Amino acid sequence: MNMLRRSCFLGLLAAVTLLAGCAVTPPPAPTPQARAALAPDGKLRVGVYSGSPTSMVTDKNGKLTGVAYELGRELARWLNVPLELVEYKRIAEVLEAMKNGEVDFTFTNATEARARDMNFTLPLVSLELGYLVPAGSPLQSATEIDRAGIQVGVSQGSTSQGVLTRSYKQAQVVPQPTLKAASEQLAARKIDAFATNKGILYEMADGLPGARVLDGRWGLENLAIATPKGREAGLSYLSSFALTVRRDGTLQSAIARAGLRGTVEPAMR
């Protein structure tokens, strides 16, 4: 499994600088049991993959952002532990690492199947699922995709791969190893469309002149904070964290900085 670790002690330094510069209410202190459950190695290992605003991207100034990255950094501040980013090529690798206890935190689509392998908070963001087509494509709507001869790229091992493989009657699903590879395939017209959430699609479109996100959607993703099974002692504290960042503007600020588009209001529960 290809991954890159970044020890982000600078995250704590940034938090200290922020606290020194303005009046920020200190977060509630975790119990020793909650801290040990959420960051058992004394640091918070946050699993991310590059290219998705829901996970991690680089902004125009070269600064890291992304919802998983920013929420992970904020939770590390709450827990008063260092942040370690663990980077993977695609979401399937992040999820496998979480199942194996190799990361402590990520932000991803909270499906029923995934909930068997990890714990989720309440949904914090809902994203439309759609299609990106290259410049000059005759396709205009998501309803036009399932046709003979249409090849649709998906992230290898993703929920999109499973759902669309089962639902298509004529179109063919073509798994892609990375988002970069998918962009290259679109640019070379080796695939007719790429399917995932619109947050990723708009990000990809920014780098593909003339590419378009089609009208309509084929589903919704409900994204939530995920932690490994066996960390139940920290779930109450994590739920409090999730509710707080949703209500105090932290989540919306992270969404704005990441340039995340295609969101709809998630149902409260």
Descriptive labels:
alpha+beta, D-Maltodextrin-Binding Protein, domain 2, 2 domains, 3-stranded mixed β-sheet, 9 helices, 14 strands
Task: Describe it.
There is one protein chain. The chain has helices at 9-21, 32-38, 67-79, 91-99, 159-167, 179-187, 198-206, 235-247, 250-258, and strands spanning 3-8, 44-49, 57-58, 64-65, 83-88, 106-109, 118-120, 125-133, 151-155, 172-176, 193-197, 212-213, 219-228, 263-264. Strands 6, 7, 8, 9, 10, 11, 12, 13 and 14 form a nine-stranded mixed sheet that branches. A three-stranded mixed sheet has the order 1-5-2. The longest helix is centred in the first third of the chain and has 13 residues, at 9-21. The chain is α+β, with helices and mostly antiparallel strands. It is built from nine helices and 14 strands. The two termini are 36 Å apart. It folds into two domains: 3-125 and 222-264, D-Maltodextrin-Binding Protein, domain 2 (3-Layer(aba) Sandwich), CATH 3.40.190.10; 127-219, D-Maltodextrin-Binding Protein, domain 2 (3-Layer(aba) Sandwich).
Which architecture of the largest domain would the CATH scheme give at its second level? 3-Layer(aba) Sandwich
Give the number of helices: 9
The CATH topology assignment of the largest domain is D-Maltodextrin-Binding Protein, domain 2
CATH superfamily of the largest domain: Periplasmic binding protein-like II
**What class do helices, strands and sheet pairing give?**
alpha+beta
H/E order of the elements?
EHHEEEHEHEEEEHEHEHEEHHE
Please provide the count of β strands: 14
